[in-house]
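Justification of resources, computational component.

The compute hours requested in this renewal are based largely on the per-chain cost of generating structure records like the one below. Each record pairs the submitted sequence with a full structure-token output. That output is archived, and it is also reused by downstream analysis tasks.
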Amino acid sequence: MLDARGECRPHYGAYGRWLAATSADSMAAKRAEADLLFRRSGITFAVYGDEGGTERLIPSDPVPRIIPGSEWSMLERGLVQRVTAINRFLADIYHGQEILRAGVIPAEQILVNDQYQVAMIGTRVPRDIYAHIVGVDIVRDADGQYYVLEDNLRVPSGVSYMLSNRRTMMRLFPDLFRSHAVRPVEHYPALLLHTLRASTEVDNPTVVLLTPGRYNSAYFEHAFLARQMGIELVEGQDLFVRDGFVWMRTTSGPQRVDVIYRRIDDSFLDPLAFRPDSMLGVPGLLAAYRLGNVVIANAIGTGVADDKSIYPYVPEMIRFYLGEEPILKNVPTWICRRPDDLKYVLDHLPELVVKEVHGAGGYGMLVGPTSTADEIARFAQALRAEPANYIAQPTLSLSTCPTFVDEGIAPRHVDLRPFVLVGRDVRMVAGGLTRVALRKGSLVVNSSQGGGTKDTWVVDEPGSAAARDHAEAAAGLAIEPVPPVMPEEAHELTPPEPPAGIAPTAHGER
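The structure output for this chain reads:
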């Protein structure tokens, strides 16, 4: 919000003047009202194994993150370029494998990767789109540049919080939206439904959202998105395969399903093809999928591009498939399976962030500068034992945004997760989910680690052609809004403590 001289940056100007004239008591009241709205709507996140209880409210900060439209335009171009190259890569490794033959990526990095699905070799998917929904985590460093921290392609989550934050902010601060040309995000469910319908050649397709069930940490989001899109929320037991097609059980008889928006990891999708002990999937689903009789979004096997050991190669994918230089840079990364990289990482552990290649949610990582000597020593042992399981990155000076905390307005570190939709073209709403590390000095923004969220405003000059164009485009895509969940309905969307024997985090979201 402020530059090095302590002056408000131009795109924060109007908001900065409003904030300076607003009392701390008024902001505290608004935050309490936001918490009440979130709790009444069942907007919580389950954390299993937490002695304080499984259900947590996602803290929503009432101070928005503001990004100027010109900056967003650059991010948008970079995101389109990145997800286009990743889809080309996924199509290639399951068919011609040209990038492996060219030696751009070592074949063993792909072919023995746990997320590489041999069953997908030679399987065609419509228009070679493997990743229909992508959440890209972006950070801004002290040099003022944006960097991609990681790509989430399996079951990227968090969009419900983006939409709920916007709905809450518009309710709490309607005057601010009248005085700022904030680009809309409310049409995301319409864009998502359009993308899912466009993923198949079937006319008027039946689309469903497949959830692991109410014990999953992101069940609220599954139910929320299904309601917003007007599609059925189903579990594996609601579907069956017959004659090579997928059918849904309904009160009026079986109904054919054409598109499955899955929120379940590959290994749980089909007990006949993957984990035989899975009670979450649909027996025979892979066979129907390989026949081309159903679309799964995201496609089976996309997780190999989600792996943190593959992330360092995305710039090379862009050059190889598109013949372009990357618009968005990666964070410099050491791949610990390389002996020289491992030696460097072990020698500099107190300075680095080390992550498990399959890790998610802030788990299984070491933040060197904030770790104790004992923690660093234990992590060094794990690194030496299984170096291929880790990557390392420098500790970035993540950008901060003003955040309302107990002591008032203070800087807290943030990242940004835009949600990119890939259909006949690549589309996204402006902004995304800003996650904020609420603990002072913390660099970990994940909800499971105590982080919160902010509304993200992409702003144009009021009255500009860009502002009018974006408002008109959103209005043309809008679907009938679904009323907020009433308090008596909230229990249906909030995941309770799972019964013994169920491992809800085994298919956790990214």
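Residues 479-507 have pLDDT under 50 and may be disordered. Residues 69-93 form the longest helix (25 residues).
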